[in-house]
Design goal:
CATH topology of the largest domain: Rossmann fold
Order of helices and strands: HHHHHHHHEHEHEHEEHH
Mean pLDDT: 87
CATH class of the largest domain: Alpha Beta
Shape: globular
Number of domains: 2
Distance between the termini: 67 Å
Structural class: alpha/beta
């Protein structure tokens, strides 16, 4: 093909698939039919979820999208989300003020329902027992990681946040069995994070994943997984609702650590408050 069909402005993924469906293999036809029948759900899937739903290997799914001249699944999802959005666009009765409020409330409620207390306790105990805790996050997840570092610092738990992908690789390479990695990724499919986590596991570090997807490339390497519930369309990447779902998990972890080390955390908080008070007029 002379042109990259998947990258052509305004080209609908559904049209691209229709034009090429006569070339699809048996496995590719499974992917095609699933996407055609579940387009509104696919934009919220992780690569692993789509692979399992279609009953084919992840590598086959990736080859399918490259055959369509897309860079990968995320590139395809972005175009599909635009197509689905245009097809379902309408003026609802809710104002955007109401929609944002309701989405945030729903995200917190749904996240609360899927948090397992035993898994949360295991995460808290693991972080508490380690003197080498490193937080990995990129983009908006990196901002959440910085907030987590700030919260933990206030109760006396020192951590290191790494938001640069190259530095993440270097840091992962120096880890040991005493290291704990907290990997924050909404999709669980950010390649840089997954690459760093894989190296961390090779060095026997314990990996804690904070994600919205139970099945993703990231969770395959995780020892412990805490899930939030605010799956976002590619068109809403980095939305406030998604950030709040991440911060909710972080708040649970930090509060649990505070309760576990109450007296020490209380003393450190008082010291910090006294010192910071002098910075205020």
């Amino acid at each position: 093909m002379a042109n990259h069909m998947g990258e052509m402005s305004g080209t609908k993924p559904s049209i691209i698939m229709e034009q090429l469906k006569h070339t699809f293999t048996k496995s590719e036809n499974k992917i095609y039919h699933y996407i055609r029948d579940n387009s509104q759900s696919v934009i919220y899937h992780s690569l692993t979820e789509l692979s399992e739903a279609c009953g084919v290997a992840e590598a086959t799914v990736l080859r399918f999208f490259r055959k369509l001249e897309f860079k990968g699944f995320q590139d395809f999802k972005f175009m599909l989300a635009q197509e689905v959005s245009k097809a379902t666009q309408h003026d609802g009765e809710e104002t955007y003020i109401e929609k944002i409020k309701n989405n945030i409330i729903e995200a917190i409620n749904d996240s609360s329902e899927i948090v397992h207390s035993e898994e949360l306790k295991a995460v808290i105990d693991t972080i508490d027992a380690s003197s080498d805790v490193v937080i990995f996050g990129i983009g908006s997840s990196g901002i959440a990681g910085l907030d987590m570092q700030n919260r933990l610092m206030r109760i006396g738990k020192q951590t290191n946040v790494v938001t640069d992908s190259h530095v993440q690789i270097m840091r992962a390479s120096s880890m040991t069995e005493n290291s704990v990695v907290i990997a924050i990724s909404l999709t669980g499919s950010t390649k840089d994070i997954v690459d760093a986590v894989k190296i961390s596991k090779e060095n026997k570090a314990t990996v804690i994943a904070l994600s919205n997807y139970a099945k993703s490339p990231l969770t395959k390497f995780a020892d412990l997984v805490l899930l939030s519930s605010a799956k976002e369309s590619p068109l809403d990447s980095g939305s406030l609702v998604s950030k709040i779902s991440q911060l909710y998990l972080i708040d649970l972890i930090c509060t649990g650590l505070t309760i576990k080390n109450y007296e020490e955390a209380k003393a450190i908080k008082m010291k910090i408050t006294e010192k910071i008070a002098s910075k205020l007029y």
